[in-house]
UniProtKB/TrEMBL annotation:
SUPFAM superfamilies in the record: Acyl-CoA dehydrogenase C-terminal domain-like (SSF47203), Acyl-CoA dehydrogenase NM domain-like (SSF56645)
Residue stretches making up the Acyl-CoA oxidase/dehydrogenase middle domain: 162-269
Domain Acyl-CoA dehydrogenase/oxidase C-terminal stretches: 284-450
Domain Acetyl-CoA dehydrogenase-like C-terminal, residue spans: 471-592
Described function: Involved in the assimilation of dimethylsulphoniopropionate (DMSP), an important compound in the fixation of carbon in marine phytoplankton, by mediating the conversion of 3-(methylthio)propanoyl-CoA (MMPA-CoA) to 3-(methylthio)acryloyl-CoA (MTA-CoA).
Class of the enzyme per the UniProt entry, highest EC level: oxidoreductase
Protein's UniProt name: 3-methylmercaptopropionyl-CoA dehydrogenase
High-level lineage: Bacteria, Pseudomonadati, Pseudomonadota, Betaproteobacteria, Burkholderiales
Reaction it catalyzes: 3-(methylsulfanyl)propanoyl-CoA + oxidized [electron-transfer flavoprotein] + H(+) = 3-(methylsulfanyl)acryloyl-CoA + reduced [electron-transfer flavoprotein]
Record keyword Ligase present: no
Domain of life (superkingdom): Bacteria
Amino acid sequence: MSHYTPPLQDMQFVLSELADLHEIAALPGYGEATPDLARAVLEEAGVFASEVIAPLNHSGDVEGVRLEGGQPRMPAGWAQAYARFVEAGWPALSAPEAQGGQNLPGVLAAAVEEMWNSGSVAFGLLSLLSRGAVNVMRHAGSSELQQRYLPRMVSGEWTGTMVLTEPQAGSDLSAVRTRATRVADGSYRLHGTKIFITYGDHDLVPNVVHLVLARVEGAPAGTKGISLFAVPKVLVNDDGSLGERNDVRAVSIERKLGLHATPTCVMAFGDGAGAVGYLVGEENRGLEYMFIMMNSARFAVGLEGIGLAERAYQKARAYARERVQGVEQGGETGAKVAIIRHPDVRRMLLSMKSRIEAMRALASVMAASMDQAALNPDPEVRDAHQAFVELMMPIAKGWFTETGLDIASMGIQVHGGVGFIEETGAAQYLRDARITTIYEGTTGIQAMDLVGRKIGRDGGRAIRAVIVRMRQVQADLESHAQAELCAIGAQLNKGIGDLEAAVESLVKSWEGGPKPALAGSGPFLELLGIVAAGWQMGRAALAADRLLASDPGSDFLTNKILTCRFYADHVLSKSAGLRHAIVSGSGATLEFSDAAF
């Protein structure tokens, strides 16, 4: 199995030059987020990810999770690793100080989270879900619920889950049937079955706090009648000690294509008298509260796509450097060479590398905007950043994961036949990446959200504001004295033009009814992802060129510009075809009868 090397230099470059960490550090409460602190946090997280988490990835995949006497058992070594994770304080990295957290910016936490995912997505999922549950409890939970559960959830001593899906409902939450009955003491009793519950139960901690969607008796039909409940695996006494086991159990563990070390459970609530649950917020507002968790989870899943892609790339690169096969075309000696010398292998590796760096840049800029939207003292600035985050969230969830999946597949191609053999480890990244495009809303759902809510309903106002910012960078590139940057600017100009044409076509189409616009939503999500990431790569090229003036011998900065140029030529150049599919090809989708499929 290949070793994981955290990409610390690129992360630090992105934080300082693209995500403007110095501006984040000026926000209320983030004064300690200096470059030195960020560097120290990234270095320590990199050590933990590479030396503690990464070695468990393959063994956890092979051993998997097993169900013994109704209790899911984690693979060997996971309990010790998670105990060290909690002891080091990693779960509390970005939580508020008032609740036991370290109050570091989300933009820094996002870089750390990418490393957890590169180490092992199966491991990183546990803290991802707990963090989301904490956010919901912080925003909507009563003071009593917060006092009882948050300190130990923030620390990682207890974990949390998101419990939505039911066998008959799938992604249609309006069809949720789990019922909740009021009890005289103010609590509720829940009865129902939920499926696909990630880390629904495990033996790493003594308690799991489930956030469960259910219907109170007499509630309105559809999504308006859904409430949210905190349902602990073990009841908590008034003094904070653990009491009796709640009426909650893992019925089975799903057998999955990937993520074998993650206990994805079928959960039964209320086999007997009913699972004791506590209302979070108000009745019938559960879906509203759950979207707090779902939105943070969607961004976090995008980071999974980046982390998996980085690990697949590193493995493919290592193999290409050591695998000797064939002679170099045009070489003089006819000696056998490592396959990294072959042009098409180099193209594949650069395709992987450039797209990873582009996604990392866009993800960091998004995370910085989340920090600004939460804490900037100027309400207009907060609103502008929030609009940008909402527009780009489908890109983070949809495009990052689809790109990560493609990069993991390309990693197998670099290996050739041995990549198809499980023992080499390349196939695991593809299997693990496959689910990221599905959960927290499939790519199709993200694309419909993007075109429907973010483009059609607001008439394209939010995206036009972003295009103005893109044009500023494009102008700086095209007027630059360096030929490489001019070439990047020229391609970015074409990409932005294709994006503008697609936006205008979708806005006009939406006015006549949603179906034609939605038929082009998938290609549009890809187009916006490619161009938005190209915008950030353009910014990266400008920053690297500026820094080269004081560090002319930097291989990192020189290679950054070359990588940005490769992205412009090989990835951003795809915008024209996507534009055509959206503007001219979407209507054909609706012309076929059902019998044609």
